[in-house]
Amino acid sequence: MNTVPSIKTATQAAINRIGSIDAAATVVRVGRSQLSEYQSRNSPAVVPADVAVTLDEFAQEPLILTAMAQAEGYMLMPVHLGESSGHHGMDQVAAKASATMTHAIEALADGKYDQMEATLACRDLTNLIRVAHSALHALRPIAKGGQG
Questions:
Q1: Would the pTM of this model clear 0.90, i.e. be above it?
Q2: Which of 18, 19, 22, 116 is deepest in the core (most CB within 10 A)?
Q3: Residue boundaries of the structural domains of the chain
């Protein structure tokens, strides 16, 4: 499976989350044209790790690093698991599950997944697993009689 398109999609998503390519260029060591190449499927250039970390930091979610980890068969997990804002993370689980199902229904409208749809489904499922694991970590102590 060619993983470069998913990294480029994640790069584009991080740039969009920051606001624009111009805004993103103000926070990383590369310029606008290089960022444009990192998100273009017509360019072989892929975002380097240090730029990916900074873009993800400003996007406030590890979008690019998640795609990179998936490309190597891994998944990211937060270092500091525990109570998240909201209802011990269950609000995030519900939101990610809903988004995952919505995307799956859209992808299956023609009866099959294409490569891009499968890549996006893998990203959605990875994000769902991540927030579900965090919620589970927050709720387990309560289930064992602790404070919540």
A1: no
A2: 18
A3: 4-71, 85-143
